[in-house]
């Protein structure tokens, strides 16, 4: 997709701050440092709109980015950093859980994992939790440029087998460095947001 407009709208700390434009929303989840901000910047063709390496464990907010007046990316706080893990749900944020469960404009969650390593227990917990509530999921395996191409199939298999990915859920390899996977991810997002 050609992104002509992208703006940061709000860091919401509660539901009363969510945008009321009625546009569809795509949420992004992943442990801290997985490459979420870099992916957002790559997808929207901006160098630095999403803040990279935002401090883990900081105030838990939902960051809304409006794209082409068509949809929102909703950046969820990174999980799995030190003491902020999915096993400590309260810390990760009841209101984030509530957003994921109750927001009717939420069309899909992009779950980022690092292609280089097997998904962590927090990644698996997140995937299981989203699956349990029947929230549409797309798994994106980041930092593919750091894995030699010849080993991509092996690493992809490791991601799928560790998460026990359901056949209906897409897994896309991605690199914020090379742009690998960008168009595939856009086309998948648009399938979920075009009515
Ligand atoms: P976040 O905490 O999930 O938002 O992660 P960031 O986007 O801040 O990325 C964490 C670190 O990984 C930064 O140093 C990025 O430059 C690096 N990084 C993110 N994505 C990629 C990628 O696709 N390839 C490479 N080589 N580095 C990446």
Automatic annotation (TrEMBL):
<comment type="similarity">
    <text>Belongs to the TRAFAC class TrmE-Era-EngA-EngB-Septin-like GTPase superfamily. EngB GTPase family.</text>
</comment>
<keyword id="KW-0717">Septation</keyword>
<dbReference type="InterPro" id="IPR006073">
    <property type="entry name" value="GTP-bd"/>
</dbReference>
<dbReference type="Pfam" id="PF01926">
    <property type="entry name" value="MMR_HSR1"/>
</dbReference>
<keyword id="KW-0460">Magnesium</keyword>
<dbReference type="InterPro" id="IPR019987">
    <property type="entry name" value="GTP-bd_ribosome_bio_YsxC"/>
</dbReference>
<feature type="domain" description="EngB-type G">
    <location>
        <begin position="22"/>
        <end position="195"/>
    </location>
</feature>
<keyword id="KW-0132">Cell division</keyword>
<dbReference type="InterPro" id="IPR030393">
    <property type="entry name" value="G_ENGB_dom"/>
</dbReference>
<keyword id="KW-0342">GTP-binding</keyword>
<keyword id="KW-0131">Cell cycle</keyword>
<keyword id="KW-0547">Nucleotide-binding</keyword>
<protein>
    <recommendedName>
        <fullName>Probable GTP-binding protein EngB</fullName>
    </recommendedName>
</protein>
<comment type="function">
    <text>Necessary for normal cell division and for the maintenance of normal septation.</text>
</comment>
<dbReference type="InterPro" id="IPR027417">
    <property type="entry name" value="P-loop_NTPase"/>
</dbReference>
<keyword id="KW-0479">Metal-binding</keyword>
